[in-house]
Amino acid sequence: MSDALSPLIGSAPQGEAAERVCGECSLCCTVLRVDALRKLGGIDCLHQDIDGPGCSIHAKRPRICRAYRCAWLKGSFGEADRPDRIGAVLDFVSSGATVQLEIHESEPGSFDRQPRLQEIAEGARASMPVRIRDSRDVLDADRPFLLLLPNGENHRVSGEWSEVTSPPKVSGEPEVVVRRRLPLLERSLRRLILKVRRWRLRDYRGASCSEER
């Protein structure tokens, strides 16, 4: 994360990040997908310790679990912003030359209920896109998400449709709301990608439940 972004979203003072540990937080074990364990996002991991937060196979956990560190654990945000306390796992994700902040809600509505999550998102969107989504029904092709762009636009996306809210060009005027659909070629490509993805994840834990909802 760039130094310019750090003060906007409350990164830890230098040295504080090195002392951070997961502690009682194991939210990533629920909201994220783990291919090595054939577990979908939004499904509790079989190895989460039923007697308390933690991993029952910690010493032998998959390589991806060993390597993963959320943005908070890496030192972003304040000490009080641990994922289980603010209701979301946050990651900075690179796609080509673009960096995006991903907010994985612990449950639907976490972002709307947590002023701190909203504060973090507003600070980050000044320099990068911010995507907010929950972890339910991850195989649902129409699962909605919210995308906040640096230009002030908010995109509420559900399947092939987006509701784009743009800030007014003149102070005092109402926001501009436009409903858009993906172009035909992009819709066809999207459907193919989703079909392949659903087939690839068909035997993951939680796949049958997701299809039934």
Written account of the structure:
This protein has 213 residues and is an alpha+beta fold. It has one domain. Helix content is 25%, strand content 20%. It has helices at 6-9, 28-31, 63-67, 83-86, 110-113, 115-124, 184-200, 207-212, and strands at 88-95, 98-105, 130-134, 145-148, 154-158, 161-166, 176-181. A seven-stranded mixed β-sheet has the order 1-2-3-4-5-6-7. The termini are far apart.
Keywords:
seven-stranded mixed sheet; alpha+beta; 213 residues
Number of strands: 7
Strand order of the largest sheet: 1-2-3-4-5-6-7
Number of domains: 1
* Major sheet characteristics: 7 strands, mixed
Termini separation comes to 38 Å
Helix content: 25-40%
Instruction: Please tell me how large the radius of gyration is.
Output: 19 Å
pLDDT averaged residue by residue: 86
Q: Tell the overall outline.
A: globular
pLDDT under 50 segments (min length 5)? Answer: 1-8
Which secondary-structure class do the elements indicate?
A: alpha+beta
**Percent in strands:** 15-25%
Tell me the number of helical segments per DSSP (H or I, 4 or more residues long): 8
User: Which sequence of SSEs, written as H and E, runs from N to C?
Assistant: HHHHEEHHEEEEEHH
